[in-house]
Amino acid sequence: GVELDPCTRGPLVDQNMHTLVPGVFACGNSVHVHDLVDYVSESGRTAGKAAAKWIHERNTRELLPLRHSSDFLYHVPQYLDSADKDSCILYFRSKKTIANAVRLFAEAEGCKLQIEEFGGLRPSEMERVEVNLANKNSLDYVLTLEVQNDA
User: Fold this and answer.
1) Predicted model pTM
2) Which of 1, 21, 80, 140 is deepest in the core (most CB within 10 A)?
3) Confidence (pLDDT) at 62
């Protein structure tokens, strides 16, 4: 009964690795294929801490989809829990090779938040960034990539 992402073939999750089924958590390569074992362990810690918290609090969640432009193959998490606005780890792969410098943005309600800058992107390489979402009015973000043309 856990809904799967057609691109990753793993469960849809929020920033706490909580699936869309309340109380069911997923992590590691069952969510998507990681490039480094360190990231597998990192997602396990995130899921474990969140599951322990869930057992004691069982708060209601308000899940908002984290969408992306056509430049992305996929991103994880696919949802953000609006009750947890601190920061989250974002994993993604670009859809195509981009040799130029690239900026990653999150856009919501006409506001653009620059997250990270990359020297280039390849679909074969998973990217990992920490996104600080504290004090943002909306978590209804669309992820975009902009190629810098600093020729």
Assistant:
1) 0.85
2) 80
3) 84
